[in-house]
């Protein structure tokens, strides 16, 4: 595979960039000197063990958590110093799929997806209806308007949450462990949906995951979190770099998968 300037995530414009980030909760230092980036229009996968700071990284990007020091830039804007009002403006560029879906249990799927539109736009009922149905259809859900979240299967719930995360037309989509708890067919389904959103809408997507196979398949860029630092690069770069920590981290299966992806992705 030959990487051109246009397609090389390492040279593409950083849509999200963290630099020299330090963050501790009491004596628990989560990030010592975190540097990582998510290129515009690409899929970046954040990998790390439990407690390595994956969710915290997404919260930093979403402006839900401030670092103790360092810089967090989203769409060219430094968000660390922003007040609530400006943060709200930046957050409107960001869709978030939280761990475990986080739909409201007591209202219908339709109302869950409609909620951001009702809260943040002046759209009338007809526009809301058409927008909600468009988004539900785009994640393969029909005839679920009246159902409560508790009446959907795990895979359908995740897709409904995804519909809600994109209903405001974000330019950046943050997904915290979107594959967790799903069986393999549903993992593939969510993976395919995220890939399609990236290709068709040009969404910049940042996904945290334990799911190594998916990560190697769909990640243009990987960020490995370890001991408060990050090692980043394309799957092929990380594998080719031969850093023993990376190989240990990714495991031999993933290294083999990356080698395969590198050879097979031309023209895909
Ligand atoms: N609000 C918080 N208060 C105290 N500790 C926190 C808070 N959020 C996260 N942590 C700690 O930060 C570390 C990283 O957490 P997290 O980002 O949730 O990890 P991951 O998502 O990789 O499992 C953990 O040790 C966690 O206990
Ligand atoms: Mg987490």
Layout of secondary structure:
Elements: E1 14-25, E2 28-39, E3 43-47, H1 54-61, E4 69-74, E5 77-78, H2 84-91, E6 94-97, H3 109-120, H4 125-138, H5 154-166, E7 172-176, H6 184-201, E8 204-209, H7 212-218, E9 221-226, E10 229-233, H8 235-241, H9 244-264
Parallel strand pairs: 3-8, 3-9, 6-7, 7-8
Antiparallel strand pairs: 1-2, 1-4, 4-5, 9-10
Helix pairs in contact: 3-4, 3-5, 4-5, 7-9, 8-9
Q: Helical content, roughly? A: 40-55%
- Order of secondary-structure elements: EEEHEEHEHHHEHEHEEHH
What is the strand tally? 10
Assigned CATH class of the largest domain: Alpha Beta
Q: Mean pLDDT score, rounded? A: 88
Structural class based on helices, strands and sheet pairing = alpha/beta
Give an account of the 3D structure.
The chain contains nine helices and ten strands. α6 links the parallel β7 and β8. The chain has 268 residues and is α/β, with parallel strands linked by helices. The N terminus and C terminus are likely disordered. The relative contact order is 0.17. The protein has a six-stranded mixed β-sheet with strand order 6-7-8-3-9-10, with helices on both faces. The chain folds into two domains: 190 residues, Rossmann fold; 70 residues, no CATH class. The structure holds adenosine-5'-diphosphate and magnesium ion. Magnesium ion binds next to α1. The site of adenosine-5'-diphosphate has 11 residues, from β2 and α1.
């Amino acid at each position: 595979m030959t990487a051109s300037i246009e397609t090389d995530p390492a040279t593409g414009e950083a849509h999200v960039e963290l630099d020299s980030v330090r963050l501790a909760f009491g004596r628990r230092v989560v990030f010592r000197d975190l540097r990582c980036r998510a290129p515009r229009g690409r899929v970046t996968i954040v990998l790390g063990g439990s407690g390595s700071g994956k969710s915290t990284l997404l919260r930093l990007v979403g402006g839900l958590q401030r670092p103790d020091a360092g810089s967090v830039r989203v769409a060219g804007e430094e968000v660390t110093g922003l007040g609530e009002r400006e943060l709200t403006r930046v957050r409107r560029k960001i869709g978030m799929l939280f761990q475990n879906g986080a739909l409201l249990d007591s209202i219908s799927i339709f109302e869950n997806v409609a909620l951001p539109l009702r809260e943040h736009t002046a759209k009338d009922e007809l526009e809301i209806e058409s927008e909600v149905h468009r988004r539900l259809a785009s994640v393969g859900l029909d005839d679920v308007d009246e159902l409560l979240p508790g009446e959907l299967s795990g895979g359908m719930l995740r897709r409904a949450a995804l519909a809600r995360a994109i209903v405001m037309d974000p330019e950046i989509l943050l997904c915290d462990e979107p594959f967790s708890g799903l069986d393999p067919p549903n993992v593939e389904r969510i993976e395919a949906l995220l890939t399609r959103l990236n290709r068709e809408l040009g969404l910049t997507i940042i996904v945290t995951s334990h799911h190594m196979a998916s990560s190697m398949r769909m990640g243009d860029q990987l960020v490995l979190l370890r001991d408060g630092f990050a090692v980043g690069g394309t799957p092929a770069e990380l594998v080719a770099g031969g850093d023993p920590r990376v190989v240990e981290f990714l495991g031999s299966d993933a290294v083999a998968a990356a080698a395969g992806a590198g050879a097979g992705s031309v023209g895909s």
